[in-house]
Amino acid sequence: MDIMACLSFLAVFDTGSATVAAQRRFISQPALSRQIQTLEKKCSTGLFTRSKTGMQPTHAARQLEPIIRRLMTNVKDVDTAISEFGRDTVPLTIACPILVAEGVVLPFAAETNTVLADIVEYPTNRLHEALSRREADLSLIPAIPPPEFESRLLYRIPYTLQVRSDSPLARRESIDVQELSNENVIVPDRSSGTRRELDRQLTMACVRFTPLQEVSRAHIGQAMVRAGKGSVITVDPPKYGLIPLPVTVSSTALTLEEWAAWPADHYAADTISHFIDELLTWMKTKPIFETLEFT
Questions:
Q1: CA distances from 53 to 14, 15, 32 (A)
Q2: In a 3-state reduction of DSSP, which class is residue 25?
């Protein structure tokens, strides 16, 4: 397969213009046209219809596009792997929710001088997609990963109901999930792993309640509680002087599991394993993480 022709095909497919595609590829338009014609000859069919308004992909081109795009991703992976051979460590791209990035990964990298290629922030419901598309080497996710990935349980985080210090609940040592239906509770929205796991465990406990409000980030809910609006259930550390009450199910703490996941065939599996070990070692030294249950 002619890699250069494949790149030109994708450039034309994405831009709809041979002129713009040639500029993007830093080659002349005649050279790009020859590459497309060679690919069309190999396919024994036309891939684009040409007109004054541009180049439109044919049905054959639309069938070919996802295959060629996967091929280019694999070529990129090979180039990356080759460039990293001989290095002691491979800089990783980490995919995680914004809270994990800001509260865990970035402070760890800053304090330990760990070199990372990038940190990409994704909502929980898109983290596995990032791995599948090879947009990240490793994901840190509050949900059990699908079986096609290698994975490792990192720790469990307790859910807390956070209230103002002047709330009658502030004197309590904990609150059972059965009591939530009697409270005005702010919860994360359903894009978050925190909410999805909460809903799952409440369903298992046969608890039904209607939240007072859904918020995109727990921090927003915490500010609302401080301003006098209900209480918030979260796994985040308390802010604004709020009092955290452990949430229990029949006297057992309600927790959220945090997992690491990575492609099963990843060439830098040893580096990923070492990164996880170092991250957990660092977290265990920090008082802010003392409520976590490490595995």
A1: 15, 12, 18
A2: helix
Q: How far apart are CA 55 and CA 21, in angstroms?
A: 11
pLDDT of res. 91:
83
In angstroms, rounded to a whole number, what is the distance separating the alpha carbons of residues 230 and 185? 6
Q: What's the farthest any 2 CA atoms get from each other in the chain?
A: 77
Burial class (CB in 10 A: 0-12, 13-18, 19+), 262: buried
How far is C-alpha 40 from the geometric centre of its chain's CA atoms? 38
Q: Would you say residue 242 has pLDDT above 80?
A: yes
**Cα distance between residue 108 and residue 103, in whole Å:** 9
Tally the residues of the chain: 295
- What burial class does residue 161 get, using C-beta atoms within 10 Å of its C-beta: 0-12 exposed, 13-18 middle, 19+ buried? buried
Instruction: For residue 254, count other CB atoms closer than 10 A to its CB.
Output: 24
Cα separation, 180 vs 73, whole angstroms = 47
CA distances from 120 to 98, 149, 212, 277 (A): 9, 19, 31, 21
List all residues 6 or more positions away from 29 whose beta carbon is below 8 Å from its beta carbon.
Answer: 18, 19, 22
Write out pLDDT tens, residues 21-39. 999 888 899 999 999 999 9
CA 106 to mean position of chain CA atoms: 15
Residue 225 near residue 177 (C-beta atoms within 8 A): no
Do residues 55 and 49 touch, judged by C-beta distance below 8 A? Answer: yes
Inter-axis angle of helices 3-15 and 29-43, to 10 degrees?
Answer: 100
What pTM was computed for the model?
0.65
